[in-house]
Every structure is written in C-alpha cells, then in structure tokens.
Amino acid sequence: MKKEIHPISKPTLFVDTSCGIEFFADSTVKSDETRTVNGVEYQVFNVEISSASHPFYTGKQILVDTARRVEKFHEKVAKTEAAAKIRKGKKAKKAKTLAKTKTETKKKTEKKEK
Description:
This protein has a domain at 10-63. The chain has three helices and four strands; from the N terminus they run E-E-E-E-H-H-H. Strands 2-1-4-3 form a four-stranded mixed beta sheet, with no helix packed on it. A hairpin with a 5-residue loop joins strand 1 and strand 2. The chain is of the alpha+beta class. Belongs to the bacterial ribosomal protein bL31 family. GO terms for molecular function: structural constituent of ribosome. Keywords: Ribonucleoprotein, Ribosomal protein. Residues 84-114 are annotated as: Disordered.
C-alpha cells in the first residue's frame, strides 16, 4: 500500500436520531463531537435513519418527518378546502344565471298574456 494516501479510520459511534439506537464501528467520517464509552474515545456521528428505524428492515412504518412536510401538506389541503367553500364555482354561477333568465322569461310571458 502507498503511504499517506488512505484516509485514517477511527472508532466511531453512529447514533440514529429517530429512535436513539447507537452503533459502534470504525469509519473514516470526521466529527468534532466525541464520547468516551468503556474507556475508549469514539467520535459521534448522527444519522437520521438506519437499519434500526428503516421500514424495510423493521417491517413497520415509522414516520420520520424532520422537515414538517406532512403537517405542511395537511395545512395546504385545509387552506384550499376552506377557500373552495367560500368561493363559488362555475356550476353555481351558471345555475344562478340560468335561474335568473328563466324567471325573466316567465315574467315576460305573463305580461304578454295580460
């Protein structure tokens, strides 16, 4: 092997932030945070999802919503539904004008008959 071209491997503690599970491994990732466990100093690396929380491996769905995407979607849907209830659609407008023209034609025919 050539010297000084390979990254340095250090003991690393991977922490799954969605479920709190910790994994020990050697890795070349760099982290400023460290933690000592059983006299060994590990660099700590936080991950959002791992095999302990991924639905493929666990067999159950765990909702990991770090960016509030689900809540934002529900708020958007509720907002559009509320606006749709207030706003009159084309069908309502057409029905109103059709009813208005029918009443006008009835009044005209009644006047002609008198």
